[in-house]
Design a protein that fits this description.
The protein has 249 residues and is of the alpha/beta class. It contains nine helices and eight strands. Bound molecules: zinc ion.
């Protein structure tokens, strides 16, 4: 199968014991893996992974759940500008209303989110968005923005997914599709043209450590839901990812 994992964190500690062999298996089984940065150090680590492995691409971002303690937004903007030609997008960025409840911090999340959206417009880079429990607000903020959008691990309502697709956004279907009715409903609603696969590895694999090749299982599951061949699902989602991120297949 031709598979792209459009959202993974192979730099996370969970791979410290065997990162080399995980990456080797990815090299054998995957067309590409997009490693998503979350803070200054993780952005550096993403860049290094991309530098060392031709099939790994990096996006650089600021994770909205770090809002209270991470004050390095200026430095992250610099990282993005300095590496504009080496990265395939800005992310993850966005809003998280699950972990961040207070108005004060939500407002600050929003300011930072808008700042990175404007940077993406300026640099003409796609954005990879974290939207946990804040999908509606994210859609409001995106209105009128001239930017290519991937809603990573989208868990909003199927109706909101439809609205997003109408605007030309792409829905990141994670390995949650293997066990979440909500995500299965979203897959039923959204056309294959608007879906990319992702793991959010090391997370979202029913308690076990996730890994990029598990998107193959997602392709099988999506093929059941949509009544299309798994190979076709893999091929279509890989084409979608390649187009958005400018990957060379
Ligand atoms: Zn993530």
């Amino acid at each position: 199968m031709q598979l792209v994992d459009t959202h993974a964190h192979l730099d996370f500690d969970q791979y410290d014991g065997d990162r080399g062999s995980v990456i080797e298996r990815c090299r054998e089984e995957m067309v590409a893996v997009v490693n998503s940065g979350t803070n200054v150090e993780r952005n550096e680590a993403s860049l290094e992974l991309a530098e060392e492995n031709d099939f790994i691409q990096a996006t650089l971002g600021f994770h909205p759940t770090y809002i209270k303690e991470d004050k390095s937004v200026d430095r992250i903007e610099e990282q993005i500008r300095d590496n504009e030609d080496r990265i395939v997008g800005i992310g993850e960025i966005g809003l998280d209303y699950h972990h961040v409840q207070e108005d004060k911090w939500r407002e600050e999340q929003e300011e930072i989110f808008i700042r990175f959206l404007e940077l993406a417009e300026e640099l003409q880079l796609p954005v990879v968005l974290h939207t946990r429990d804040a999908e509606k607000r994210v859609m409001e903020i995106l209105e009128g923005k001239d930017v290519e959008v991937i809603l990573h691990t989208f868990n909003g309502s199927p109706e909101l997914a439809e609205a997003a697709v109408e605007r030309g956004y792409t829905i990141g279907v994670s390995t949650q599709v293997l066990y979440s009715n909500r995500v299965q409903d979203i897959v039923e609603t959204v056309p294959l043209d608007s879906i990319v696969l992702e793991t959010d590895a090391p997370f979202l694999y029913q308690g076990d450590r996730n890994a990029p090749w598990n998107v193959g299982e997602s392709a099988e599951k999506i093929s059941e839901i949509k009544g299309e061949g798994a190979e076709d699902v893999a091929k279509a989602t890989t084409e979608n990812a390649s187009e958005i991120f400018g990957l060379e297949p």
